[in-house]
UniProtKB/TrEMBL annotation:
Tree of life domain: Bacteria
Positions of region (Disordered): 1-34
Keyword Transferase attributed: no
GO cellular component: plasma membrane
UniProt organism field: Azospirillum ramasamyi
Protein name (Swiss-Prot/TrEMBL): Cytochrome c oxidase accessory protein CcoG
Transmembrane segments: 47-65, 99-119, 173-191, 203-224, 377-396
Compositionally biased residues, Polar residues: 20-29
All residue ranges annotated as the 4Fe-4S ferredoxin-type domain in the record: 274-302
Record-level Gene Ontology MF annotations: 4 iron, 4 sulfur cluster binding; metal ion binding
InterPro entries attached to this UniProt entry: 4Fe4S_Fe-S-bd (IPR017896), 4Fe4S_Fe_S_CS (IPR017900), Cyt_c_oxidase_cbb3_FixG (IPR014116), Electron_Trans/Redox (IPR051684), FixG_C (IPR032879), Helical_ferredxn (IPR009051), Ig-like_fold (IPR013783)
Protease listed as a keyword: no
Keyword terms of this UniProt record: 4Fe-4S, Electron transport, Iron, Iron-sulfur, Membrane, Metal-binding, Plasmid, Transmembrane, Transmembrane helix, Transport
PROSITE patterns in alphabetical order: 4FE4S_FER_1, 4FE4S_FER_2
Amino acid sequence: MPSDAPTITRRPSGSKDHSSVPQEPQSPYASHRKIHPKAVRGRFRRLKSGLGAVLLALFALLPFLRWDRGPGVPDQAVLFDLGSQRFYIFAVQLWPQHVYYITGVMIIAAIGLFLATALGGRVWCGFTCPQTVWTDLFVWIERRVEGDRTDRIRLDKQPWTARWLAKKAVKHAAWLAISAVTGFLSIAYLTDAPTLAVDLLRFDASALAAGSVLFMAACTYLMAGFMREQMCFYVCPWPRIQAAMLDEDSLVVTYQDWRGEGRAPLRKSEGWDTRNRMGFGDCIDCGQCVQVCPTGIDIRDGIQMECIGCGLCVDACNDVMARIGRPGDLIRFDTLTAQAAKAAAITETAKAAITTETAKATAVPPPRYRLLRPRTIVYGLMLVVVGGAMAIALALKPSNDIAVLRDRAPLFVALSDGRIQNAYTIKIANMSLTDRQYRLTLSGPPQASLGLSGESGEAGELALSARANAVETYRIQVRVPRSALAGASTPLAFTLTPEPAGEPVRHDSVFLAP
């Protein structure tokens, strides 16, 4: 971990300092504690819901968008056709030879995630991660059917009754319906979506397609309905990596302990002047920040691995502060550098004197956020370089390819006229959307001639053809006089040139002789 990275603590929610009290050794194993997040309103809740709705809509609509690529080619805008080994992404078509594009996309995604984390903490986890989006949807359904946090906790403790069974049945039926749709949409990216939908509704889908849909549906049902935060705690590696991506100037969810401590419940008979003189802060220890947290942590214990940076605790705390007449942002997105500067600027006397939001803002000028830092500059430059290389590679992506496989049994054949013959299998990949004609030429051994297998004629070059978006296979013979060969192995090269014009492609091989 770099020296400037913040320390990640992992303490149970609501924990307090009991260092002076002897503690018994705790078991490293703990039973699962079910979390019932409470509903909350605020700007981060709206942002989270809006982004989730947009991402779900894109996931559902993309397989049904059409993109005209010409006759004989799939018209699904986004299609990862594993059967024909083609990836179609709008105007881009990728073949197995283009695996380096997939590698480039993964590198860009990783660097982008590093940059987003260095700038805004775990914004990916809190707002756009599929586990977060689907869990949010499942919790919303649970809340609509069973009620808010208190009602759900009470319902879970009740014995089985007709009402209990009805609520659970409705909730799980809705979960299963969403899981089934998710399973279908996941597989719809791998085949024609409308055709798959019709086949499934008619019970005419293949066993592989139906099994894949059921598998993805089961994964959605289990992970979003039951595992939820456990996926983040125990399965996802990113929480354990994030510490290396953060530094003191990353925006993270912070609790302003210099303002909130010491925390104590608010009594109706108490005024804020009295509380300040008693050494109490703005935190009234209501626990709302813990109750709305999807992972059930207490942000007042500091930055923790379990925090996904969703900001719902900010909304909950701001609502409480507004109701008790105190300034907002006791919990806020801020940098550790800014928090340390603010804490250093607040003396006990000044803290007791500050009672209004205006006075507090005047007394504690916020440090300026540093957007450009060594790591953000490095990540940004890496994105530009890799993204530029990908753009250039896509612009220069060839539309033809040739693969050559020399026969190994036999290695060569001695003809009656004194020449040596080698056989080769030629595969021509026509990546364009129109049929094409090609000219195959040979360079290397002098006096070499080409001939198609099964045909008697031979020449210095061959005219070949390939259908649109297909691979054509030819078997050819190369014949060279024995006197023209300098040794047992002679380099040669096949050059494939599109007709009437196009960029030639070349493949190197060898010619073997006695």
